[in-house]
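User: 60S acidic ribosomal protein P0. Structure?
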Amino acid sequence: MVVKPTKAQKKIAYDAKLCKLLDNYTQILVVAADNVGSNQLQNIRQGLRGDSVILMGKNTMMKRSIRIHSERTGNETFLNLIPLLVGNVGLIFTKGDLKEVSEVVSKYKVGAPARVGLVAPIDVIVPPGNTGLDPSQTSFFQVLNIPTKINKGTVEIVTPVELIKKGDKVGSSEAALLAKLAIRPFSYGLTVVSVYDNGSVFSPEVLDLTEDDLIGKFAIGISMVASLSLAISYPTIAAAPHMFVNAYKNVLSVAVATQYSFPQADEVKEYLKDPSKFAVAAPAAVSGTAPAAAAAATAKEEKKEEPADESDDDLGLSLFD
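Assistant: Predicted structure:
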């Protein structure tokens, strides 16, 4: 006869298991497990088998084991997990890529009916069309103010109707109607709410950031540093190029307005004295525009060389002569 372990023995075994996982793993996903059944959880375990382990349990037991392990090892970074253990949550210990593990977890979602008193996680919209219900069922639709008509002996919904809004509780009438229409509007599974990585805790949205997102955020930060540096006239690496350009503009303005000059200003002054050089040289400086500029200049010269008193009548010729 197998002797069942006592409550104290179960706590000791759970504590040993959690401490062992904390020793072997540095990456942990904190997941919400609301409305997740045991069969669904088993499927998720199988999908993550290899480099990830799921551990569920009471929050008080997990917090106690984490505190004991932190005191025993002197590693206080594990204490960052304690504030995250709120509600019906579990821990996924992994050595794999956090984003890939999170994507695998999100795949295992199961459709669920709208139960009475349940808080709707999304908006529920009943689509228009034939419901297959007989006319005696119209009372459900009338209570919920859903426009219907009788078509070929069955009830047909005329327009789409927002039956339940996100955050509202499901009423008995809404639940009964959705059940009759065989609509399972909600889907549940493990949802990643926080990420623990080597003592750092951050939101799961960080896992969705791409290299382009990081570059964009870095560029915005550099732009802000440059703007602040220019506003307070404090030189930084980000603001230095702008400061040099602004300084050059100021010196160039002085040189153009006075007799003072320097090599870079001489060229600008020459362009200002003879605008035609500037008109021809500027397009030529841009790659791919030189042929167009040359063609335009040639056409302009030909137009200037045409005699003013010449006309078609003076030629004395005709196409049919």
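The first helix runs from residue 7 to 24. The mean pLDDT is 81.
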